[in-house]
Amino acid sequence: QVQLVESGGGLVQAGGSLRLSCVASGSFFRIYAMGWYRQAPGKQRELVATITTRGSTNYADSVKGRFTISRDNAKNTVYLQMNSLKPEDTALYSCNCNAYDYDSQITKNYWGQGTQVTVSS
Question: Has residue 44 got a pLDDT over 90?
Answer without folding.
Answer: yes
